[in-house]
Amino acid sequence: MRSKLFVPASRPELFAKALAGAADALSFDLEDSVVPERKAEARSALREFLRGDAARTSGKTLIVRVNAMDTRHFAADIDAVVQPGLHLVNIPKPGSAEDVRAAVAAIERAEQANGVTEPVRLLLNIESPGALRIAYALASAHKRVAGLQLGLGDLFEPLGIARRSDPAVQQAMFAVRMAAGEAGVFAYDAAFANIKDEAGFRAEAQLAHDLGFLGKSCIHPSQIATANEVFRPSDAEIVHSVKVLAAASEAQAKGVGAYVVDGKMIDPPFFARAQAIVATAKRMGLLPA
Q1: Angle, helices 235-254/268-283, rounded to nearest 10 degrees
Q2: R_g over Cα of the chain
Q3: Is-contact 33 219, C-beta < 8 A?
Q4: Where are the domains of the chain?
């Protein structure tokens, strides 16, 4: 899931085009991009789309950002969009571990009502000071939590923090990545609002990659190629990782706990990283399965 494109749920004419695009994942938005007067209409259109063959056979990760749990729209959103074509529900503004468990309960009820047999998981937005403070508690609240997603605009703007403040961005990213790592879930990067600033988008994506994030949110199709490129394992990383795994077998046969590959000392943490890179490369078709 190197790239995740936001698609307004009130624009069903864009659904098929988004499916045909290069984004690894699509995040259909029922929250900020849909005015209150059109939420029911958007919800209905998205329900029909997710029930269709095109969604279920697309090969993409399909996500829906629902409205916050303290709104009157949340329950109706869950009932409509938890369909066999859906993989993740994106929960905005979770306030506590109890919120997470309540969201899971609502999803489970919708699964039963809609004949969903594959459990739908949660992507939790970290977009408030409180959520950032308890990010690990949110991530570990239930086994259905798949990841944490950083929301820098919502996090920074109310506090008067510059969205392009490098120290602030780095600290927020690091905090979310550590919380996700402790909970054993993935961390996903925020959107970048300036569509014309490709260099800024690339730099922020590269920082997220270097901090171990899974991928970056895109608000425009023009950002997808950059995200896919940045979050693709490099050829050098793949070659080195293959060497590490090959050398590990030899070291194990010799009863050696640490060994050297390409002049670098390899022990369990580096071996685990090499395993992850090789697995990602295979999943992307960059290595034979």
Answers
A1: 130
A2: 20
A3: no
A4: 3-230, 235-283
Is 265 within 8 Å of 239 (Cβ atoms)?
A: no
The one-character DSSP state at 234 is P
Q: How far apart are CA 146 and CA 128, in angstroms?
A: 19
List pLDDT tens digits, range 35-57: 999 999 999 999 999 999 999 88
Q: How many helices (H) and strands (E) does the chain have?
A: 13, 10
Question: Which residue type is seen at 119?
Answer: P
Angle at 86 between CA 226 and CA 99, to 5 degrees: 95
Asked whether residue 251 carries a pLDDT value surpassing 80, the answer given is: no
Beta bridge partners of 187: 148
> Where residue 207 falls among pLDDT bands split at 50, 70, 90?
very high
CA dihedral 41, 43, 49, 55 (to 10 degrees): 150
Q: Could you give the dihedral angle defined by the CA atoms of residues 159, 163, 165 and 169, in that order, rounded to the nearest 10 degrees?
A: 90
**CA dihedral of 162, 135, 224, 65, whole degrees rounded to 10:** -100
How many whole angstroms separate alpha carbon 150 and alpha carbon 217?
A: 9
- Identify the CATH homologous superfamily for domain 3-230: Phosphoenolpyruvate-binding domains (3.20.20.60)
HSE-CB for 151 with a 13 A CA cutoff: 23
Q: What is the DSSP letter of 157?
A: G
